[in-house]
Write a structure and sequence with these properties.
Distance between the termini: 17 Å
CATH topology: Nucleoside Triphosphate Pyrophosphohydrolase
CATH architecture: Alpha-Beta Complex
Number of domains: 1
Structural class: mainly beta
Number of strands: 8
Strand content: 35-45%
CATH superfamily: Nucleoside Triphosphate Pyrophosphohydrolase
Order of helices and strands: EEEEHEEEHE
Largest sheet: 8 strands, mixed
Radius of gyration: 15 Å
Shape: globular
């Protein structure tokens, strides 16, 4: 198994919904992710997050972020997609008041974007599978500020 990869992402709320990116990779089909990506060596978590938000959804400015609000340790079974270990560090931000018409992606793996009501996430293939956390998490709630989740 290779060394764990660090991935930063953001729960981007727009009114009462969450923005997700649709990905498609050969052999895996369609799945959804929080916008974000890998952290490069020597890059701070927030610098990586702002770079990834620009690449995946076209936000050019340094959006104020909260957190980290959650950590997810995701280890795939070796017989599934190969041995892969990803540590997801999740931040949060509010997009309310912004126009989402300009949401675009420079990332070839991103096949589109969509706003989801958290109640509608049960039937969605989300990586990592954090639907339960997204339904109960409230911005600014100190009791839920840093949660630890482990994906199967």
């Amino acid at each position: 198994m290779q060394e764990p990869r660090v991935r930063v992402s953001a729960i981007l709320r727009w009114e009462d919904r969450v923005l997700l990116c649709r990905h498609e990779k050969s052999g895996r089909g369609e799945y959804w992710l929080l916008p974000g990506g890998g952290v490069n060596a020597g890059e701070s978590l927030t610098t990586a997050l702002h770079r990834e938000l620009y690449e995946e959804i076209g936000i050019p400015d340094k959006l104020p972020v909260e957190g980290p609000v959650a950590l997810v340790d995701s280890i795939s079974p070796q017989r599934g997609f190969g041995a892969k270990h990803v540590v997801h560090i999740i931040f949060a931000a509010d997009l309310s008041g912004r126009s989402l018409e300009a949401v675009t992606s420079q990332d070839a793996a991103v096949r589109g974007h969509r706003l989801f009501d958290t109640a509608d996430l049960d039937g969605v293939v989300l990586h990592p599978p954090i639907q339960r956390f997204l339904r109960r998490w409230q911005p600014g709630d100190p009791a839920a500020y840093l949660g630890a989740l482990w994906a199967p």
